[in-house]
Structure formats: structure tokens, C-alpha cells
């Protein structure tokens, strides 16, 4: 498994992969997360993502950029949850500690 696909596989396992609702060839619906993955991972990342959106400057900037374009703030929350999951996997895989700057 290459290092580029491993975080995306993990996000898919957790149910953070994006699916698009389609009906036929011309009607396209909204995109959403699949929620077919492990719900316990998504539940465990909910409050850490809320704290990260408020206090981590890099993730806060990313969150604010996302919610400016979207109708719901939950879309930004889910994006930060997915980012945190990828960050945790990378830190674990490389056996390193998180250094903020």
C-alpha cells in the first residue's frame, strides 16, 4: 500500500468518502459522505474537530475558508474531521510527534 492512498483508504473505512447522488444521466444531487464506514471513528472525531476549528490556527483558517462557500457549517466540521484522521494516521505511520509549527 503506497503512502498516497493509505489516508484515503482510511477515510473511506471511516465513512468520510464522498458520494454523489445521481439519478439517470441528467439529474445530479448533492454530494455527501457515505457513512458506510465505522461510525465509532466518526463519533470519536466529532469533538476534537470542534476544538481544532476553534483553537488550531491552521485548521481554523481551513474551516473558515470552507464554510464561506458552503451552506452548512457541518460540511466544514466533516472536512476537519477527515483532515484530523489523515494527520493522526500520518503521525502514527511515521512514528513522530505533532509539532504545531
TrEMBL record:
Single GO term (MF): transposase activity
InterPro entries attached to this UniProt entry: Transpos_IS110, Transposase_20
Pfam families: Transposase_20 (PF02371)
Annotated protein name in UniProt: Transposase
Ranges annotated as spanning the membrane: none
Coiled-coil intervals, chain numbering: none
Positions of the Transposase IS116/IS110/IS902 C-terminal domain: 7-63
GO biological process: one example: DNA transposition
Amino acid at each position: 500500500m503506497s503512502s498516497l492512498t493509505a489516508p484515503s483508504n482510511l477515510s473511506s473505512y471511516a465513512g468520510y468518502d464522498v458520494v454523489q447522488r445521481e439519478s439517470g444521466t441528467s439529474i445530479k444531487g448533492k454530494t455527501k459522505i457515505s457513512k458506510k464506514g465505522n461510525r465509532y471513528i466518526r463519533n470519536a472525531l466529532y469533538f476534537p474537530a470542534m476544538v481544532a476549528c476553534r483553537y488550531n490556527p491552521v485548521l481554523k483558517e481551513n474551516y473558515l475558508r470552507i464554510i464561506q462557500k458552503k451552506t452548512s457549517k457541518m460540511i466544514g466540521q466533516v472536512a476537519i474531521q477527515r483532515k484530523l484522521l489523515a494527520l493522526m494516521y500520518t503521525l502514527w505511520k511515521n512514528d513522530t510527534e505533532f509539532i504545531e509549527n
